[in-house]
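Page 42, continued from yesterday. The earlier attempt failed because a stray header line got pasted into the input along with the sequence. Redoing it now with the clean sequence only.
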Amino acid sequence: MPETDAAEPARTWRRSVVLVLAILAILHSVLVALWLAPSGPVRQTVGSNGLSSYVDPYFRQGWSNVQPSAQQVDETLLVRARIASGDGLPATTDWVDVAKDQTVQRRHDLTPGRSSLSARRLATNLNAAMFRLGEAGRDLVADDYATRSLSGLRDTLEKRGVDDNAIAVYLIDDQMATRFASLYAQARWDGEIVEVQYRSGYRRVPPRSSEVRIKDVDFTWFDQGWRPFYRGPEGARTAFRDWVGS
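This time it went through. Structure tokens are written below.
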């Protein structure tokens, strides 16, 4: 059999596939165009319900899907500290919204570094971990562990029936948040830091069609108890001093 005759079935198969894909692409474009078009005789003939059942599951269109940096949830991280004083009772600082401060700092920065998002990313991880702990677990982690071992917290969470993976994830995030809060505190406040505390929060972003503004929506907070101060290596302390002082 000549070579050209042997290759003909393959070429025919490829042409058929291309033709089918082209027809599907044209059909998809027509359906989406009808979905976006104003109501009219053609759209009424096809039926809005039929168009909706095709477009909505996978191809839903909306400003919230295409706007730059669209967010459905606003998350933040607050930090405060206890500082040793001469009368023996440590002084407690006010809460500082670190994620908000980072947002303000990078507002006019054309090339912000990844560190400028560190507080918000940490808040995202913490919020997810807190949801996984459940209500019983969240009540337990709100206790103070500045002078107690966190191994006791692990045991108590296990006795409450909290999932082992959820406990492991939370303890890792708690360690990260404690170190972050400690490094931030000693860079921001003078004096000897004794203990640190952090809390994470989230709030739903109102739809663009709503008259409610994001600043008018209250945060839902996940509170933690006081945690032991972490001094950290000199390199980390220097990096936080440069960032907080900028």
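Notes: Residues 79 and 198 are 5 Å apart (CA to CA).
Reminder to self: strip header lines before submitting.
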